[in-house]
Amino acid sequence: MVIGIDGGTYDIINPFFEQGLLPNLNKFRNRGILGSTMPPGTGVAWSSFSTGNKPEKTNIYDFTIVEDDSWKIKFVNRRILQGKTLWEYLDEAGLRSCFLNIPLSYPPDKINGVIVSGIDTPSTFSNYTHPPELKEKLKEFNYDIEVSGMKGLSDLPNEAVRILDARLKSARHLIKDEFDFFAVLFRASDVVQHFAWGTDYVKEVYMKIDEFIGEVQDNPNFEVIVMSDHGHEKVHRAFNVNTWLEQEGYLFTKLKKKSMLSNFINREKIFKIMDSLNLNFMLKMVPRELGKKIPTKNVDFEEAIITGIVEMDKTKAIAKRAVKSSQIFLNKESRGGIVRLEDEDRLKKEIKGKLLRYFSEKNLEVEIYTKEELYGNYTKYAPDITFYFKERGYDTLSVISPEKKLWDKTKEQATHNQDGIILTDMNLKLEGSNIIDLCPTILDYFGIGKKDVDGKSLLDVA
Questions:
Q1: Do residues 223 and 361 both lie within one domain?
Q2: Cα–Cα distance for residue pair 93/165, rounded to 1 Å
Q3: CB neighbour list of residue 421: distance below 8 Å, 6 or more residues apart
Q4: Partners of 322 in beta bridges
C-alpha cells in the first residue's frame, strides 16, 4: 500500500514527531528524502510516480500546456500523459489494484480493480470512477475532488479538511475489498500548507492521516510506503519573472491602470457572491476563455494570452508560474510570433545568462535550464526555459500588473521544493531515491520484470 501525503515535508513532520503528535508515522524505521521532479509540481511529480519516467517522457510539465504551434492553452489529463502506467502494468499481470485520487488518472482506465481519478477531474459531475457505479457510493461520503477555486483563500483550509474527511471515509470503505495493491493520495496537506502554514489546520490534517496510517499498520495484509510527491517550505518573498522580462525588453503589454469598472465588477467579487448563494456549480458551466476575460486583480499568463494584453508583435518571451519555479516560453514563429527558428537558441542562452547574473549579484541561489539542458531532445510542450528558486524562502510570480513590481509578497504562505518524504518498514534503499523509483520498485515487488522506466527499483533483496 502506498499512502501519499501531498507536499509532505520533514519541516512539518519532525517537529510533530517531537511533540508526539504523529505516533504511527513515527513508528516507521526506514526514512529518507524522496527527490521530486523539475519543476516539483503536483501533476508533474505524480505523473512520474505513475509511470516511473521523467517529465520529458510523461509529457507533463504543469497542469496546463501550451500547444507547440499556437498559444492555445489546455489542461492536462490522462489522455495527454504518455508512457505505460503502474495500473496498466499491474492489470496486465493479473493483479487487482485500487488507485484513489492519483493525479492524471482522468478519465479512468478500465482495469481489474478501482480508479477514482484525481485533481485533473473536471468535477464530480464527470464520470470519474471505474467501475462507474462506484460514483453513487462515493456520494454517500460527500466525496469531492478538490477545494473550490471559487472560494476565498481564508476558506480553503476548512474546505481541505472537509474533503479530507470524505476521502478518508472512501479509503476506509474501499480498503475492505480484496486488492493486491492500494494507492491513496491525501491532497489536504498540500492545501493547508500553502494557505495556513503554522496553524492548527496543518496539525489537524497530519493527525487525521496519521490515524489512518495506524489502521493499516495494524492490518497484516499490507506492507506500507508513505511518501510525498514533493516537499514544502515557508516562503516570504517572490520574484516576478514577467516584470523582469518587461524591464529587459522581452515582453510588451497593453495593460493600463485598472478601470473604474473593475473596482465594482471583478472575478473575485463574483466568486464570493456565487459562493454565498451556493451557486458555485453554475460557474463550472461558464466557458473557461469567457471566465478569463472577466476583470481580475492580477492578470496571469493564461489571461494575458486570452485577453490580448500581450503585444505579440513585439514580445519575445513570457513566463508562467509553476510553484517555486517559472516556465518561460518564447514567442516563436511556429506559434505565430516573432522569434525566428535560427534565433531561438541564442535568445534562450541570452535570457538564461542575464537571469543568472542578476541573481549572482543578489547572492541568491537559483537553477536555470534551457529545455534541451533539462529535458533533452524530447521537448513537446516543454517550456523553453525553466527557472527554479533553490534558495529557501523564495517563490516566483508571473503576474502582469500596472504596478510592475519586480519583487513582491508571495502568492501563498508556503510552496513546493524538491525534498519529498518516504517512510516505510520495507527493506528499501532510500538514499538518493527519487519519485521515479516508486513505480519500478512496486513492479519489482510483484515480480513484473519487463518495464520501460527511467527509475530504479529500491528493493534491497540482500
A1: no
A2: 33
A3: 5, 8, 9, 10, 13, 31, 32, 33, 34, 226, 227, 228, 231
A4: none
Per-position DSSP letters for 193-258, written without gaps between them: HHHHTTSHHHHHHHHHHHHHHHHHHT-TT---EEE-SSEEEE--EEEEHHHHHHHTTS--B---SP
Whether residue 222 sits in one domain with residue 108? yes
Inside any domain, residue 328: yes
**How many domains, in total, are found in the chain?**
2
Task: Answer yes or no: do 360 and 429 share one domain.
Answer: no
Residue 189 C-alpha cell reads as: 496537506
Q: What is the pLDDT of residues 73-87, one digit of tens each?
A: 889 999 999 999 999
For residues 324 and 203, membership in a common domain is answered with no
The verdict on 179 and 89 lying in the same domain is yes
pLDDT digits (tens, 9 = 90+) for 195-245: 999 999 999 999 999 999 999 998 888 999 999 999 999 999 999 999 999
> Cβ contacts of residue 258 below 8 Å, gap of 6+?
295, 402
* Residue carrying the nine cell digits 512496486: 442
Query: Does residue 67 or residue 238 have the better pLDDT?
Result: 238
In a shared domain, residues 229 and 322: no
Q: Range of 316's domain?
A: 237-255+299-411
Q: What angle do CA 338, 340, 341 make, to 5 degrees?
A: 145
- Whole-angstrom distance, CA of residue 31 vs CA of residue 429: 10
| Strand 419-424 with 225-227, pairing | antiparallel
To 10 degrees, the CA torsion angle through 319, 323, 324, 326?
-10
CATH of the domain at 228: 3.40.720.10
Using a cut of 0.85, tell me whether the model's pTM lies above it. yes
Rounded CA separation 239/243 (Å): 9
